[in-house]
Here is the input.
Amino acid sequence: MINKKVTSLSVLIFIFIFFAGCGGKKVKIDPTIKKYNEATIYLNNGNPEKAKVLLLQVIKKDPNFYLAYHSLGIIELYKRNFKKASQYFEKALKINPAYAESYNYLGIAYKEMGMNSKAEEMFKKVIDNPNYPTRENGFYNLALLKLSEKKYKEALEYINHGLKINPSFAIGYNLRAQIYAILGENSKARKDYLKAVKIMPENPIFNFNLALFLYKKEKDPDAAITFFEKARALSRDRNLINLCVKYLKEIDHIKNEKNKHKKEKDN
Here is the structure.
């Protein structure tokens, strides 16, 4: 199944500047904070290189600006420069050990480098932090880690905790469905795949995963066609589109062969 990590690339922190009246004068904006905000806008708009230039200027001006290190880590993470990403997250945490978001991302970087025990340690810091607003992400990443280690029962336990925290956690249902499918609990898997699609009907990956499950596991190509077609229409990922086309052609070929054999038998 196709799967995506929860890394919250688009959920970046803005430092909001409020203007207050003070003798008719506006409060002066700190230029370092202003530059960080500009970098964050670039990053949110899909321009990491421009963001990186500004963020490097920020930390040159203020070496203790931990949010800038965190954002630089995100950029390197998505460029798959995992070692460099981990160094930025480690720096952010050295400055501010209470910033739980960096533990989550650092865990992802560690996992991608094959440092599973260190990754697990970071994710547990996330789930053990009662003030972290999206602790389900930590449980999700722990479940994903255990799934990669083929420790399916542990993976299931972690994702159940995540879904208990956030019952609308679509990517959590998608992951739990994959675990159930591996364990041979197809009825539970189908229910969770459908739930993920119901919560986020415009997500092409969820539609694809459901379609593939219906086709491969439940041997229901007719039901699968709808979701393959929807995934193809929604996706901008050429690889995913090509996979949808491949399976739709495969299903069409199988149906044509069945019709051909049926006609030959009738004759």
Observations:
- The CA atoms of residues 232 and 245 lie 7 Å apart.
